[in-house]
């Protein structure tokens, strides 16, 4: 749990209260003036009701220039950000012709495969010429190429499972697979901070959903014992099946799942384990095989392994890996496999080529070097941010580093000031996080050099002092400077 500093909590509540009050006053005047203006709805109900889009209109639009910034280059260590301007107080944004070359701390490009690669790119271009950019069909019709079969075998071998199935989108992997795996009469026990795709998939399944405290195995055991004892609602019959869902690295927290303890509890109570490795596969572990390798867990102990190709492999899509019976069942029943267009052949080739580099099958040690670099970069950057006095969430080895901002006024201030100094960061606020827990999420890449990281630290430190987000005592400035000089 995040302990908010008392003063930060007080000022955050006050700021949101002020924004909410002024928003309501503006809505009141809007309603009054609306009585005297013509109504063009012609009997239709408003498609966007006032209370439903209040947050968007009165809070988000004020700072929307901090989100959805267009880029005009590959998301490498540095990329080009297109500058925008507004003539109506941020209600609409227009692109300018100006482009800023910025240090990229925003993209998920953990291993640097999103940019042009000496091994992957030529093979992707060849696959584009051979197979075209799309199969224009689902996999059960005419959308399965040799590349798709090859990719499924590579993924299964890489994660240590007998079989795998791939999908064209990571979000859909969770949201379409969960309703197939479990339904009415089943029980899903989900970590309280699981991704929205898991939340929507669980809701769509019709199963009973219970939540346990984030990354707290002891509370998971309490929930399991209580639910097994009570059984299904009203009838109190035994549950048809129980699935416990966790993530390898939590995308908004940056911390590693306590997988060994959770698996031990699931085995004790005969519950299935569903592991989402969207942010951990390819990024952590000695050979990039995710949290199972990092935490010394046998992949055979995880019943269902899910992951995406957007973070470490420079592509798109997702996968489910498990037993041959499970994968065959999903191929017969999962809507994303039966009806959605299969993953693009060039995207499939990109994943296969990236896996070959990681495994050293390209004939070089570049894969091992990338894995060592992402680990070194992540631990160095996290350590230096903490020494500066920032409140940084997450664990060592994780490339995701949330810096807590809290106050709503500090969200746009931090983002805009970093951009002025040519550092691109992602700020995250409600509804992606709880209302009081706004943050900046830093994503580190193997493509970042030591000079890049030192520049980023200098800029973030300056902006942190300006905005006032160093909530902890920092090391004396002289010591920091001496360390930076040693690193140079």
Structural commentary:
This protein has 488 residues and is an alpha/beta fold. Helix content is 42%, strand content 15%. The protein has helices at residues 6-35, 54-58, 120-131, 146-159, 170-181, 196-205, 217-230, 259-268, 291-294, 324-333, 335-338, 345-359, 366-388, 410-420, 450-467, 477-487; strands spanning 78-85, 94-104, 163-167, 187-191, 208-212, 242-247, 272-276, 304-308, 318-322, 400-406, 423-424, 426-428, 438-443. The chain has a seven-stranded mixed sheet, sandwiched between helices. Strand 4 (187-191), helix 6 and strand 5 (208-212) form a beta-alpha-beta unit. Helix 13 (366-388) packs parallel to helix 15 and helix 14 (410-420) packs across helix 15. It starts with 5 loop residues before the first helix and ends with a helix. The mean pLDDT is 93.
Write the layout of secondary structure elements.
Blueprint: H1 6-35, H2 54-58, E1 78-85, E2 94-104, H3 120-131, H4 146-159, E3 163-167, H5 170-181, E4 187-191, H6 196-205, E5 208-212, H7 217-230, E6 242-247, H8 259-268, E7 272-276, H9 291-294, E8 304-308, E9 318-322, H10 324-333, H11 335-338, H12 345-359, H13 366-388, E10 400-406, H14 410-420, E11 423-424, E12 426-428, E13 438-443, H15 450-467, H16 477-487
Parallel strand pairs: 2-11, 4-5, 4-6, 6-7, 7-8
Antiparallel strand pairs: 1-2, 3-9, 8-9, 10-13, 12-13
Q: Give the overall pLDDT as a whole number.
A: 93
Shape: globular
Give a quick account of the main beta sheet: strands, pairing sense, barrel closure.
7 strands, mixed
Which strands sit side by side, in order, in the main sheet? Answer: 3-9-8-7-6-4-5
The SSE string, one letter per element, is HHEEHHEHEHEHEHEHEEHHHHEHEEEHH
Number of helices: 16
* Quaternary form: single chain
Distance between the termini: 37 Å
Radius of gyration: 24 Å
Low-confidence stretches: none
Provide the helix percentage. 40-55%
Q: Please give the number of β-strands.
A: 13
**Percentage of residues in strands:** 5-15%
Structural class: alpha/beta
